[in-house]
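Contributing: when you submit paired examples, paste them exactly as shown. First protein:
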Amino acid sequence: MDKQLLLDCEKRIRPFIHRTPVLKSRLIDAMVNANIFFKCENFQRMGAFKMRGAANAIMQLSDEEKQNGVVTHSSGNFAQALSLAAQNLGVKAYIVMPSSAPKVKKEAVKGYGGMVIECEPNLPAREKASQEIIQKYGATFIHPSNDDNVIIGNATACMELLEDHPDLDIVVTPVGGGGLLAGTALAAHYFGDHCKTIAGEPMSVDDAYRSLKSGKIETNTSTNTIADGLKTQLGDRNFPIIQKYVERIVRVEEAEIVSAMRIIWERLKIVCEPSSAVAFAAVLKNKQEFSGKKIGVIISGGNVDLGQLPF
């Protein structure tokens, strides 16, 4: 994926996304002894960075493909992102969601115009339901994180951040499926000035950390983390990019995620979801490494269940 692809994408999706703000806190800077810039994708349309990749993926389809609609399986932010992007572009969106997904998430998808198809809460059932929709309607499957056009769309968040602050030393993101991390790493490589990319990952679902170590895509046996958006694993499209351009992955404990999330709420006065606090938790955990540096932290989203706050 070359630099021009990212520039073209940024121009293409601009009318359909928000250019999100960058926030700072002197108190947080003092805590880490660094200059930290928070790219607030919690203010993105539908509340997360995933709107970027979803919009770009749909816009890259042919007219015939658009007529037949798009399908994905997701119980989280990508379900909402694809639904809203499709609605904006006049395309039908079929969203396969596990029956166990919270009612509020299903309602959100419907509110954005997505058609919800429920299935058993396991991956084979999700894939089977998606295949049935592809066969029945000719819809195009769009993966939430393992899709070139999604990755390129996700890169635009870091591109905007580097336009505002071109001299960043490091950009930090959370990693789950790898779509945001791969896109960020591409943007830092092409548009940063020797800017490194580092990721934060929950200790209990550390498949990306292990994948970088072993050189092959690893899986998780446990999914026991508050960062529910990071339970997915890397894919064959994003993993090679991560291998090539990501400096390293920092693993953080559950208590460290909650603590980072609380500091963001208290000091930046914004709502962020547990998954997006993982990047800042990685910075707090390794203060010495980040000390004296200019750091971009991508707050990936703010879709949090207010009835389930950890503090």
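Second protein:
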Amino acid sequence: MTSKPTSKLSSLKNVYNNKVLPVLIDKACALDVVSEQRALVVPKAHGIVLEVGVGSGLNAEFYNPQTVKEVIGVDPHLHPLAAERFTSAGIDFILQPLSAETLPLEDNSVDSVVMTFTLCSIPNPIQALTEMRRVLKPTGTLYYAEHGLAPQPKWVSKIQQLITPAWKPIAGGCHLDRDIEQLIAQAGFEVSGQQGFTQGVNIVGYHYWGEATVATSKSL
């Protein structure tokens, strides 16, 4: 039989995860330093776009309605602001409340994949990236802006690895210690990206951004 303290703790966790955390994530991901990274990659998307981890639709304002046919947003958690923000931006939007590890799309069916500040929290990033590669047309492009493992100085990466187990439960499963570009390449993409510290706390603010295309058989 579940004790009252345990039941109360479980209830508090549910409130935090379902009510408090979505608000905190929305606010944190709307910070100027994060929006600046979005602005570097999202406007490049075109045609039929798959956005992985669409969240509350913070990327909506950065899409170009003249070059984007529609955005298919994938996220395991429904957020009421997502559809509202895409409507305001004049972008046709389809929401798929699913995880990126199993995409309900045909092979070679999208022109662009957009992934911003989401790979850190996907349980199986390689599987998700492999799915993105599967649905992306051979001529398509993955546009990404992420945060993750800082290669230099080494003490920063060591702190990231040390605190990630404690950080994940309070930050929606976010991993501070993932090497983003290594994961993208491992899943079969050719990466052309940039990386560097941005404003804020370096432990959580090491950013990667750039583009990736489906690797040819010679480069795999």
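If you have annotations for the second protein, write them as plain sentences, like these:
Strands lie at 47-52, 68-74, 93-96, 110-116, 136-147, 189-197, 206-214.
The chain has one domain: 4-214.
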